[in-house]
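Hi support team,

I'm filing this because I wasn't sure whether my run with inosinic acid finished correctly. The job status page said complete, but I'd like someone to confirm that the output block is well-formed before I use it downstream. Pasting the exact inputs I used:
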Amino acid sequence: MAGNYSIGEIMIDQEQIFKRAAEIGKAITEDFEGQEVLMIGILKGAVLWMADLVKQIGLNVYLDFMAVSSYGASTKSTGAVKIVKDLDIPIEGKNVIIVEDIVDSGITLNYLKNYLLAMKPKSLRICTLLDKPSGRRIDIDVDYIGFTVEDKFIVGYGLDYNQSYRNFPYITCLVDG
Ligand code: IMP
Ligand code: MG
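And here is everything the job wrote out:
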């Protein structure tokens, strides 16, 4: 995103997100019936979506968080992933669900998936608020997808540009000019 930009129209509003959180929460509840799940939110972008989602899961849910470095102050991925905050809870033998804000190139999730699989969870699934398939550079299976978005730079509902706009209660994008 070059120098001048403004905030676009609302693409997905709060009501649509709540509705989708309820649908995916129900799916997770059914998929793991009679079991427990450990949700690992990826800071900071996934926090708003994760908060909506976990309230819709009718199981014993444990929460943990990881932070990874991704884009820095640019809108293009560097391809390098670094763990900035690691897990607090051991995941061996647990049903783990990674909660992300957006899957773009797939590099972050591919790295995290391999990192977590090495710790021998019982199962490992991925849930993302947004999927941007046009950006994909690594093929990755995503189990629960909130919404699929076009090739735009998305902000709001946890997603940032230079750490701004995370608090918007809707999903929008940056537009040139
Ligand atoms: P990936 O590794 O390219 O899949 O990117 C994953 C991370 O990049 C996400 O968790 C976001 O933090 C960030 N990201 C990717 N696309 C966007 C976007 O459109 N808006 C804001 N952040 C993005
Ligand atoms: Mg992120």
